[in-house]
């Protein structure tokens, strides 16, 4: 028998006056899946996360969380935890006291060992007894995650969890989420950072002006939007430019000399034409020193599907 979806939304709509923030959104998140939610500013991500966390009620459509239909009650559905718009804390309380107070508000009694455990999971043990007034954005994000973990959720809903985190902090949070998912917790995370989504998520939903423009496995994006721009650095840029210009299915878009005096060609091609070009370069004795997409398949799909323009870099 198929396992119950952590999230199953059908034709969800939400309006704010004349603004249609969500316009018939379908979303499926399987148990143990880390699902990314991306979209330009104003696409409806926060609104959707708010519905999932019980902070608002949809105007239309249906929503099931962990197998239970969500009707009208403004309450976090059982087994769900997370935050939108950044977690909020009492500034005069310590990290540990804040966690205890939040659990108390939820009517849950937690043991000191549980607090130690979640603080350790997010790497805040050393500042557990510091007031949160002095916490950086990254520390607050991690404490928000610790608060969510305290309820041992089966669904975690997170808005920009890596916001403000330094690379080590982001790696830490990635590790926590990956371990949770491996143990069966589903995670829906909204992010503007495509690299985070690519590193963490197996599936992604792309929203644009309240509508789903793509939802599915990341690997599907790689095949559906295959023509990409690639940076090409070789041992002989002149020969490479000639060979690329002659190759079927390949366009040479730009040539740039970097600060290190390296000449970089940008070639646009689908994978088979690119493979063919690499073989031709090697046969001609031209070494390929670097070949990588200018933007990742996810970013390329995001830009194409949301009608945004690529920014030159
Ligand atoms: N409380 C509200 N009252 C009026 N309009 C709202 C409200 N909340 C959201 N909106 C509007 O709904 C649309 C979707 O907003 P939402 O905040 O969900 O987008 P978002 O994808 O989270 O954007 P961002 O990436 O900027 O956070 C926007 O047009 C926004 O102006």
From TrEMBL:
UniProt keyword list: ATP-binding, Nucleotide-binding, Transport
GO molecular function, one term: ATP binding
Pfam families, A to Z: ABC_tran
InterPro entries in the cross-refs: AAA+_ATPase (IPR003593), ABC_transporter-like_ATP-bd (IPR003439), ABC_transporter-like_CS (IPR017871), P-loop_NTPase (IPR027417)
Keyword match DNA-binding: no
Domain of life (superkingdom): Bacteria
Domain ABC transporter residue range list: 7-234
Family assignment from sequence similarity: Belongs to the ABC transporter superfamily.
Protein name stated in the entry: ABC transporter ATP-binding protein
Organism: Micromonospora zhanjiangensis
């Amino acid at each position: 028998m198929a396992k119950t979806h952590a999230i199953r939304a059908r034709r969800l709509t939400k309006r704010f006056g004349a603004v249609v923030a969500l316009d018939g959104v379908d979303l499926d998140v399987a148990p143990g899946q880390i699902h990314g939610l991306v979209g330009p500013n104003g696409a409806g991500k926060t609104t959707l996360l708010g519905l999932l966390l019980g902070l608002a009620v949809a105007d239309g459509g249906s929503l099931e969380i962990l197998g239970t239909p969500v009707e009208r009650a403004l309450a976090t559905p059982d087994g769900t935890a997370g935050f939108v718009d950044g977690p909020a804390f009492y500034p005069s309380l310590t990290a540990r006291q804040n966690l205890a107070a939040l659990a108390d508000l939820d009517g849950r009694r937690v043991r000191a060992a549980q607090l130690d455990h979640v603080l350790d999971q997010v790497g805040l043990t050393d500042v557990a007894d510091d007031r949160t007034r002095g916490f950086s954005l990254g520390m607050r994000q991690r404490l928000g995650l610790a608060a969510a973990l305290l309820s041992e959720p089966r669904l975690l809903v997170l808005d920009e969890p890596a916001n403000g985190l330094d690379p080590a902090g982001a790696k830490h949070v990635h590790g926590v989420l990956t371990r949770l998912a491996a143990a069966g917790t589903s995670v829906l995370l909204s992010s503007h950072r495509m690299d985070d989504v690519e590193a963490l998520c197996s599936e992604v939903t792309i929203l644009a002006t309240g509508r789903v423009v793509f939802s599915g496995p990341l690997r599907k994006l790689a095949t559906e939007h295959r023509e990409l721009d690639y940076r090409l650095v070789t041992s002989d840029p002149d020969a490479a430019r000639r060979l690329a210009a002659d190759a079927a299915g390949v366009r040479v878009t730009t040539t740039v000399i970097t600060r290190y005096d390296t000449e970089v060609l940008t070639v646009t091609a689908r994978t088979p034409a690119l493979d063919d070009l690499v073989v031709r370069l090697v046969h001609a004795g031209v070494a390929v020193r670097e070949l990588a997409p200018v933007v990742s398949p996810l970013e390329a799909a995001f830009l194409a599907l949301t009608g945004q323009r690529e920014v030159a870099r």
